[in-house]
Structure formats: structure tokens, C-alpha cells
From TrEMBL:
<keyword id="KW-0001">2Fe-2S</keyword>
<dbReference type="InterPro" id="IPR017941">
    <property type="entry name" value="Rieske_2Fe-2S"/>
</dbReference>
<dbReference type="InterPro" id="IPR006311">
    <property type="entry name" value="TAT_signal"/>
</dbReference>
<comment type="function">
    <text>Component of the menaquinol:cytochrome c reductase complex. The Rieske protein is a high potential 2Fe-2S protein.</text>
</comment>
<dbReference type="InterPro" id="IPR005805">
    <property type="entry name" value="Rieske_Fe-S_prot_C"/>
</dbReference>
<keyword id="KW-0813">Transport</keyword>
<feature type="transmembrane region" description="Helical">
    <location>
        <begin position="12"/>
        <end position="34"/>
    </location>
</feature>
<keyword id="KW-0408">Iron</keyword>
<keyword id="KW-0249">Electron transport</keyword>
<keyword id="KW-1015">Disulfide bond</keyword>
<comment type="similarity">
    <text>Belongs to the Rieske iron-sulfur protein family.</text>
</comment>
<keyword id="KW-0411">Iron-sulfur</keyword>
<dbReference type="GO" id="GO:0016020">
    <property type="term" value="C:membrane"/>
</dbReference>
<keyword id="KW-0560">Oxidoreductase</keyword>
<protein>
    <recommendedName>
        <fullName>Menaquinol:cytochrome c reductase iron-sulfur subunit</fullName>
    </recommendedName>
</protein>
<dbReference type="GO" id="GO:0016705">
    <property type="term" value="F:oxidoreductase activity, acting on paired donors, with incorporation or reduction of molecular oxygen"/>
</dbReference>
<keyword id="KW-1133">Transmembrane helix</keyword>
């Protein structure tokens, strides 16, 4: 091959240079726009930290179901999600807040609704049982205790945070 064929003409050189510079500038302008557009998707789901749910005066030694809502931001979607907790004061007046979500397959547990098992949480789906402190009763389907909400008392009101596992039993 002759050396002449490999030479780049002035027109080709200008074409390559302008295409390269143009592409670089376009990428520089587009990147922030793309980043801005997809940024919410890259962020983890955000939930409200602590939610005021009840006056401490109204909490008794008998578990009561409290329904509340939390603000949740998932990408562009902001919503109010319903939550529930079984709340009571234990023997030392400490407030306990348990998740009503059964640890077997996620049905909702009720307090004291099974006549054969007084003062226990009962899951009607597969007859799961939990003690008052949320510990699963051995020999029934659930294999771990009910999750427990993080609690905080401020100015006479109970605030609940995330429900966290209590550890296996
Ligand atoms: S879902 Fe509760 S016992 Fe199965």
C-alpha cells in the first residue's frame, strides 16, 4: 500500500476534530440532566423516622391495636403508608409496641381472640400463637417472635420508629 492512502485529508481532520469536540460537549451537557432525572431512583426508600401515635396516658396493660400512617418517599412517589402496632405497658410500666405482622407468612395477629389461648396473640391463618411479649409459642407455625417497634416518649406522647426483629426463639 502506498503511504498516500493513509494520510488524513484536511476535511477528514476537521470532521474528526469537530465530531470529537461536539461529542465531548454534548456529553458534558447531558450528564447532569441524566443524573438529575434518575437521581431519585438511585436513592434508597425513605421513611419518616418517628411518628406520634398515642398519648401515654391512654396506654394500658392490655395490648391495644393502634393504627397510624407514615410518610414514605420512593423515587418520585411520596405516599402515606398505613401501619399498625399492638401497644401496652409491661409490669414495670415500660411501653412495648409489637408489629401485628405474623412471622410465619405475614397474616395479621390479634390479641386474645382464641378462646383456647387466653392472653396470647393469635394468628388465624395457620393457628400461630405468640406470648404477650411477642415470643412465638413453640409447636405453632411461627419460628420467630413478633418484631418490636422502636419507641420514644416525648411530652406525654408515644412515638414509634421502625419495627425490628427481636431475635430467634
Ligand atoms: S401466617 Fe400466621 S400462622 Fe401462618
Amino acid at each position: 500500500m502506498s503511504e498516500k492512502k493513509h494520510r488524513v485529508s484536511r476535511r477528514q481532520f476537521l470532521n474528526y476534530t469537530l465530531t470529537g469536540v461536539g461529542g465531548f460537549m454534548a456529553a458534558g451537557m447531558l450528564m447532569p440532566m441524566v443524573r438529575f432525572a434518575i437521581d431519585p431512583v438511585l436513592k434508597p426508600k425513605q421513611e419518616q423516622d418517628m411518628v406520634q401515635v398515642a398519648s401515654v396516658e391512654d396506654i394500658t396493660n392490655e395490648p391495644q391495636r393502634i393504627d397510624f400512617k407514615i410518610n414514605q418517599i420512593d423515587a418520585w412517589y411520596e405516599s402515606e403508608e398505613p401501619r399498625s402496632a399492638w401497644v401496652y405497658k409491661d409490669e414495670s410500666d415500660k411501653i412495648i409496641a409489637l408489629s401485628p405482622v405474623c412471622k410465619h407468612l405475614g397474616c395479621t395477629v390479634d390479641w386474645n381472640t382464641d378462646p383456647q389461648n387466653q392472653n396470647r396473640f393469635f394468628c388465624p391463618c395457620h393457628y400461630g400463637l405468640y406470648e404477650k411479649d411477642g415470643q412465638n409459642v413453640k409447636g405453632t407455625p411461627p419460628i420467630s417472635p413478633l418484631d418490636r417497634f422502636v419507641t420514644e416518649v416525648k411530652d406525654g406522647y408515644l412515638y414509634l420508629g421502625q419495627a425490628k426483629p427481636q431475635g430467634g426463639a
